């Protein structure tokens, strides 16, 4: 069989593996890139000034089976006479909690009409968080993304499966 026909035969035989490799590689690299953006923003907001804010709501969602609890919040705060509405807890997974007691404790601390410190970006005051810094749990996303990317690369080296 000529070389050209042989390589076309291998492509047809292994194209599913190649596509899977591409998906793993792109997914892994995307996860790493998005996590890096969250880490950078979390490191930046450690130096943001704070202002008093008032909680409007804090809700606990999910937690069914093996899924994490998802905390949603809404708060208002004022900067230079302008009133803003925020919903970000922090960067890097602060809104996801696996432990029921920890999730309940966090939500209880953000009851409606309580005053909380709000950290805001002085250049863009509409960007704000309740917890500054980076949640250390975010680094698991670097690991997951890295493993997926490596698996994606390994898919490209798959030869023929043993018969």
Please tell me what the overall shape is: elongated
Helix content: 40-55%
Number of helices: 3
Instruction: Give the topology string: H per helix, E per strand.
Output: HEEEEHEEH
Poorly predicted regions: none
Straight-line N-to-C gap: 20 Å
Q: Which secondary-structure class do the elements indicate?
A: alpha+beta
Count of structural domains: 2
Main β-sheet, in a few words? 6 strands, antiparallel
Can you walk me through this structure?
The protein is α+β, with helices and mostly antiparallel strands and 163 residues long. It folds into two domains: 12-47 and 145-163; 49-131, no CATH class. It has three helices and six strands; from the N terminus they run αββββαββα. Strands 1, 2, 3, 4, 5 and 6 form a six-stranded antiparallel β-sheet that branches. Strand 5 (115-120) and strand 6 (128-129) form a beta hairpin. Helix 1 (3-44) packs antiparallel against helix 3. The protein is elongated. The two termini are 20 Å apart. 18% of the residues are buried. Pfam families: DUF3592 (PF12158). Keywords: Membrane, Transmembrane, Transmembrane helix. Residues 62-134 form the DUF3592 domain. InterPro entries: DUF3592 (IPR021994). It comes from Nitrosococcus wardiae.
């Amino acid at each position: 069989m000529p070389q050209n026909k042989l390589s076309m035969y291998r492509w047809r035989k292994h194209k599913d593996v190649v596509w899977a490799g591409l998906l793993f590689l792109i997914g892994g690299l995307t996860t790493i890139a998005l996590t890096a953006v969250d880490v950078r923003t979390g490191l930046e907001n450690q130096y943001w000034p704070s202002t008093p804010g008032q909680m409007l709501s804090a809700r606990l969602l999910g937690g069914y089976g093996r899924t994490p609890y998802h905390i949603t919040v809404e708060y208002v705060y004022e900067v230079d006479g302008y009133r803003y509405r925020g919903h970000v807890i922090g960067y890097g997974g602060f809104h996801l909690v696996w432990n029921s007691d920890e999730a309940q404790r966090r939500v209880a601390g953000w009851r409606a009409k309580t005053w909380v410190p709000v950290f805001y970006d002085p250049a863009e005051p509409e960007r704000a968080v309740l917890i500054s810094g980076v949640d250390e749990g975010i680094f698991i996303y670097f690991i997951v993304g890295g493993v997926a990317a490596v698996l994606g690369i390994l898919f490209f080296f798959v030869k023929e499966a043993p018969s």
